[in-house]
């Protein structure tokens, strides 16, 4: 069975540092016809389940713990009976959203997540958040960057727990090392490629 990447958009809010914004988040689901991994858990369990369909969810992998990426993670975990995975450096952000729940498994640089005939390699890319990670699928020729890299450059670093110098170094060291034709699937907005972003970041 062929591995595929499925996509939808879910709308809701992002809140941090006393401000709230309307946002559209990408939902990414990677797998085959029988099993999959969900990347991030924004806004709506129903929106995510519509992409998952009748497949078995092996994990809910959070690229970072801003509320628009993890808000429905505990409810989704209950619905699909799968572990939530998060880098432990993002606990301060997780705690802002979830005081009664924790994630199940820690992410770390180099962890490999096997699903549906492909492998997602965890790249720790702090800057947007201390525990931000990207997920590289070499055989699919793509990387899921959460809010670390977008079409047009790095993710925002103007809020608590973020650092502009750190995110640029993360991108240079971990993402610009990937092949130029690698497709970048972002947390918000349109896809891009490593080649397209290299010019503005190198």
TrEMBL record:
Keywords: Hydrolase. Gene3D superfamilies: Ribonuclease Z/Hydroxyacylglutathione hydrolase-like. Residues 24-188 form the Metallo-beta-lactamase domain. One of its GO terms (molecular function) is hydrolase activity. The keyword Calcium does not apply. Pfam families: Lactamase_B (PF00753). Transmembrane segments: none annotated. This is MBL fold metallo-hydrolase. It comes from Nocardioides agri.
